[in-house]
Amino acid sequence: FHMCQEAVPHMKSGAAIVNNGSVTGLQGNKALLDYSMTKGGIHAFTRSLSTHLLPRGIRVNAVAPGPVWTPLNPADKEADDVATFGSQTPMKRPAQPEEIAPAFVFLASSQMSSYITGEILPVIGGYSGG
Q1: pLDDT tens per residue, range 50-96
Q2: Looking at the domain that runs over 11-66+101-123, which CATH code has it been given?
Q3: What residue ranges do the domains of the chain occupy?
Q4: What is the set of active-site residues?
Q5: What percent of the chain has pLDDT over 90?
Q6: Dmax over Cα atoms in the chain, in whole Å?
Q7: What is the pLDDT of residues 14-29, one digit of tens each?
Q8: How far apart are CA 14 and CA 59, in angstroms?
Q9: Concatenated DSSP letters of the chain
């Protein structure tokens, strides 16, 4: 919120804001209550801000990744949890950061996504049908 508040006055028509949401903000997670609530708030903020900035020609979207492998994963998980991290996705593994990054580039690019605003783009390793 505060970053957008400071940046928006300097942004021109055609600019884009891409927020970092999460799949947990879309579906919730009983083990990650505070994280789910925060990411859900980012999604609502993204949609609300998009309607506010549309008249200025500024697009606002968010990427909602599923599990992503980072070097921090082993630091905050038990060994068994690290071994199974991301296995619940249809691809049966977590994403690598370089697999998520193109979604941010896509939404930031006026050449690729000029007609997209107020969207939450899930990048979750496939649709599970449920």
Answers
A1: 999 999 999 999 999 999 998 878 887 788 888 888 898 999 999 99
A2: 3.40.50.720
A3: 11-66+101-123
A4: 35
A5: 78
A6: 50
A7: 999 999 999 999 999 9
A8: 7
A9: -HHHHHHGGG--TT-EEEEE--HHHHH--TT-HHHHHHHHHHHHHHHHHHHHHGGGT-EEEEEEE--B--TTGGGSS-HHHHHHTTTTSTTSSPBPHHHHHHHHHHHH-HHHHTT--S-EEEE-SS----
